[in-house]
């Protein structure tokens, strides 16, 4: 335990020095506080020390509480996996990040954290993904690790945590630890009394083992002394606010309060008197979570794979002059306080960055570190080979919806034996059947660690859903919680890096409810998880369902979300081309040099969002030309090329295609050379355009994006009419590409029930409105 205590003190110093350096030593450019959460780091330093240097194995994965980031990076620095330059540049450009980041930090981050609650819940889904892989023939022999979350007690206010608890219970969760830093202080104040009891009941109800770690070794020893039981009772009944305030005020105040409350009781009074003020303060602040010895013992005592919650009592700001103060969440030690604390910690001036400053036996400590199991194999970013993508195609019907085509494409894959199909994991929040995943699930079955028969099949009751649960199954059925959907996609989309086995995760959700999981979607993309999300049905085209189920702004979400390529095809053949490209795109991990044809960084890869519909529309027939196939991937192609004297171009995206085509036919009777631009991805068109503009501003005058090439031949007097079953801003920017007048049609207000025709007319996205708007702005035949 001596080495663990030494490491704890080193990490306490290095984490706090890094924060102090950023705020009080490094020159300030912006004149604002840098921050860094000294108090939140201090409350977890003993837990992190025991975890990383005693309990963890290389196959374990950890989501570190966002505000404990400085301690995590101090650990990496101590182990030679983080540089001093990045530590000195904490919260600066290219320096150590404010919160652990898989994509922006250079050290060994397993899960990004930052948006509180999400890093907690993803560990449950990572454990589920680990079990999924281990159950497959191609995943046999996978070493099962623990998925560990270090949790701030205030994170338990986040609703997604409880959604994940329930989903974990449904899926027989195992190998998952949540370690709660129960310091009872949040940003704005002290946590309510008795929260621990509620936490224990909730976790217990979902099958977790709860281990309360309340007392440190010093306290347990004191409780064994004569009068110790009275001291323990006093600690148990002391309100959180009082305990925090007494901690901040120190040993003399502790003595007075204990003496006043306990009175002259002989044995307990003697217990108190045997200790100096400093010793008494150390005793009272020796809660279980601030005792590295206790935490190491507790971790070592767990000998099962059941999900386990450690409720570790801590002092926020432990070991520092700001310990216990109710304002310490955003507070920092001032230079005077820090100078005194530096002297107390025994760190000489000029030795602040020295990893082993104050260590008496450096060689012995280094020898200990060399044997720590968790770090024995070095950085733990794993890899897996890319999977070949089979030909994606099918015999299309004369009329079909994009959602129907999606289901057929997956069904065709399910019939084959490709390596790609074997690695597809589908999932949906209780909308599997209504998003056309049914045929895939019937063939590839649902995943469960233990087989579960379908009673309807056993009793020969007719049903289109043949739901058999088996370890070989490839679909994970979720409850109605979109946050869980995106967290599972995030965990599965990192499987190649976390577990060395690549998955191709595909999730479906009703398009308007993308918004319900938006924080988790952003979180998944921030980690560079790779998945396909299918939002369907979408728009007011889902006419009978009404405004609550009709999405408006999701195309803009697709454009704005980093790490996500958004598509909205109109036709089945477009979707087939896009999905074939997407299956490869999900697996790419290049350096990101832009393609000078489109100026998109396609080699870096990313995730894909498909916005689909249930509206069956007439298909254009077989198309095999390269311009169509490449255009569908790049974001647009000419469905009807414009003539040299084109007066109107109708640019549409998605299910509104028949209205655009019909309007073009009507306009061509009186207008010259009408063009119809089929936009499959406003996102990719816009990204390529802005990237090409940046390239030109940096001296590459020849840089030209795909959309600029498409529109460069249009005469200046040409008017663009854009139309989408979604927000009109999605396509409104097209006029800025070459300076053409633009009329943008779309949906800006909540929908309502009706027929598709009713709603198209109501919102002005029908063929007649397109024609009227075009006629009102152009001259017609001359």
What does this structure look like?
It is a single chain. The chain is built from 33 helices and 20 strands. The chain is elongated and about 105 Å long. It is of the alpha/beta class and 782 residues long. Helix 2 (38-55) crosses helix 14 (292-301). The chain has a 6-stranded parallel β-sheet with strand order 10-7-11-12-14-13, sandwiched between helices. The chain has a 5-stranded parallel β-sheet with strand order 1-2-3-5-4, sandwiched between helices. The protein has a 5-stranded mixed β-sheet with strand order 16-18-17-19-20.
User: pLDDT average, as an integer?
Assistant: 92
Which geometry do the CA atoms define? elongated
**Side-by-side strand order of the widest sheet:** 10-7-11-12-14-13
Note the total helix count.
Answer: 33
Per DSSP, what share of the residues sits in E-state strands of 2 or more residues? 5-15%
**Terminal-residue CA separation:** 92 Å
Could you give a short account of the major beta sheet? Answer: 6 strands, parallel
Total number of strands: 20
**Main structural class:** alpha/beta
Give the oligomeric state of the chains in this entry, treating copies of one chain as homo and distinct chains as hetero: single chain
> Unreliable stretches, pLDDT < 50, 5 or more residues?
none
Provide the gyration radius in Å: 30 Å
What share of the residues lie within helices?
40-55%
Q: What's the arrangement of secondary structure elements?
A:
Layout: H1 2-25, H2 38-55, E1 61-63, H3 69-78, H4 84-88, H5 118-134, E2 147-152, H6 159-170, E3 176-182, H7 195-205, E4 209-213, H8 217-223, H9 228-237, H10 240-249, H11 251-262, H12 267-273, H13 277-284, H14 292-301, E5 308-313, H15 335-345, H16 362-370, E6 399-400, H17 402-415, H18 419-423, E7 424-429, H19 438-444, E8 446-447, H20 455-458, E9 469-470, E10 475-478, H21 482-492, H22 495-498, E11 504-509, H23 518-526, E12 532-535, H24 554-560, E13 564-567, H25 572-585, E14 607-611, E15 617-618, H26 626-634, E16 636-640, E17 648-653, H27 657-667, E18 675-679, H28 682-697, H29 706-711, E19 719-724, H30 729-732, H31 735-738, E20 741-745, H32 756-763, H33 767-777
């Amino acid at each position: 335990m001596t080495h663990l205590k030494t490491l704890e003190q080193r990490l306490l110093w290095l984490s706090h020095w890094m924060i102090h350096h950023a705020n009080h030593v490094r020159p300030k450019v912006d004149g604002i506080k840098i921050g860094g959460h000294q108090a939140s780091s201090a409350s977890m330093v003993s837990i992190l020390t025991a975890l990383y240097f005693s309990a963890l194995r290389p196959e374990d994965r950890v989501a570190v509480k966002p505000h404990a980031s400085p301690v995590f990076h101090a650990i990496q620095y101590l182990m030679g996996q983080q540089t001093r330059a990045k530590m000195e540049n904490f919260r600066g450009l290219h320096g150590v990040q404010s919160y652990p980041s898989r994509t922006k930090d250079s050290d060994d981050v397993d899960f990004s954290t930052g948006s509180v609650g999400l890093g907690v819940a993803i560990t449950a889904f990572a454990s589920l993904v680990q079990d999924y892989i281990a159950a497959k023939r191609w995943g046999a022999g996978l070493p099962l690790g623990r998925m560990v979350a270090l949790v701030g007690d205030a994170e338990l206010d986040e609703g997604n945590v409880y959604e994940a608890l329930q989903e974990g219970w449904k899926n027989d969760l195992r190998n998952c630890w949540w370690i709660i830093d129960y310091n009872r202080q949040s940003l704005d104040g002290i946590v309510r009394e008795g929260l621990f009891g509620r936490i224990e009941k909730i976790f217990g109800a979902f099958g977790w083992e709860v281990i309360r770690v309340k007392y440190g070794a010093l306290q347990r020893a004191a409780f064994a002394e004569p009068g110790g039981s009275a001291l323990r009772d006093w600690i148990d009944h002391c309100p959180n606010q009082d305990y925090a305030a007494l901690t901040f005020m120190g040993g003399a105040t502790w003595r007075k309060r204990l003496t006043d409350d306990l009175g002259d009781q002989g044995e307990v009074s003697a217990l108190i008197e045997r200790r100096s003020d400093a010793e008494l303060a150390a005793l009272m602040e020796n809660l279980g979570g601030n005792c590295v010895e206790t935490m190491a013992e507790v971790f070592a005592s767990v000998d099962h794979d059941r999900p386990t919650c450690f409720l570790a009592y801590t002092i926020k700001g432990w070991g520092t002059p700001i310990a216990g103060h109710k304002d310490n969440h955003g507070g920092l030690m001032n230079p005077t306080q820090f100078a005194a604390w530096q002297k107390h910690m025994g760190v000489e001036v000029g030795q602040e960055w020295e990893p082993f400053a104050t260590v008496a036996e450096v060689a012995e400590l280094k020898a200990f570190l060399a044997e720590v199991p968790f770090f024995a194999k070095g950085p733990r970013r794993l890899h897996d080979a890319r999977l070949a993508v089979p030909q994606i195609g099918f015999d299309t019907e004369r009329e079909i919806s994009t959602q129907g085509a999606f289901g057929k494409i997956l069904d065709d894959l399910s019939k084959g034996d490709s390596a790609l199909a074997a690695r597809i994991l589908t999932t949906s929040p209780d909308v599997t059947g209504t998003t056309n995943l049914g045929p895939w699930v019937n063939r590839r079955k649902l995943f469960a660690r233990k087989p579960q028969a379908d009673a309807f099949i056993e009793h020969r009751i007719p049903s289109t859903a043949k739901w058999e649960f088996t370890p070989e199954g490839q679909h994970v059925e979720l409850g109605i919680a979109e946050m869980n959907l995106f967290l599972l996609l995030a965990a599965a989309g990192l499987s190649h890096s976390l577990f060395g086995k690549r998955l191709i995760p595909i999730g479906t959700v009703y398009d308007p409810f993308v918004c319900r999981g938006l924080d988790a979607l952003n979180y998944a993309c921030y980690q560079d998880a790779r998945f396909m999300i299918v939002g369907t049905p979408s728009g007011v085209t889902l006419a009978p369902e009404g405004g609550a189920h009709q999405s408006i702004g999701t195309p803009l979400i697709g454009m704005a979300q980093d790490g996500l390529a958004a598509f909205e095809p109109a036709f089945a053949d477009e979707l087939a081309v896009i999905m074939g490209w997407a299956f490869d795109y999900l697996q790419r991990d290049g350096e990101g040099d832009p393609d000078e044809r489109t100026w998109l960084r396609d080699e870096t890869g990313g995730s894909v969002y498909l916005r689909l519909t249930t509206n069956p529309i007439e298909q254009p027939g077989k198309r095999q030309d390269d311009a169509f196939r490449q255009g569908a991937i790049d974001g647009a192609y000419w469905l009807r090329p414009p003539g040299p004297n084109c007066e109107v171009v109708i640019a549409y995206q998605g299910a509104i295609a028949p209205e655009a085509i019909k309007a073009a036919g009507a306009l061509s009777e009186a207008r010259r050379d009408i063009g119809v631009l089929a936009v499959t991805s406003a996102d990719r068109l816009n990204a390529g355009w802005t990237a090409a503009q940046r390239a030109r501003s940096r001296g590459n005058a020849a840089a030209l994006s795909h959309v600029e090439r498409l529109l460069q031949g249009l005469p200046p007097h040409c008017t663009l009419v854009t139309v989408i079953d979604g927000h009109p801003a999605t396509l409104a920017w097209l006029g800025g590409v070459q300076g053409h007048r633009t009329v943008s049609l779309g949906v800006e207000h909540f929908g309502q029930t009706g027929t598709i025709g009713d709603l198209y007319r109501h919102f002005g996205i029908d063929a007649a409105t397109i024609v009227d708007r075009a006629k009102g702005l152009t001259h017609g035949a001359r």
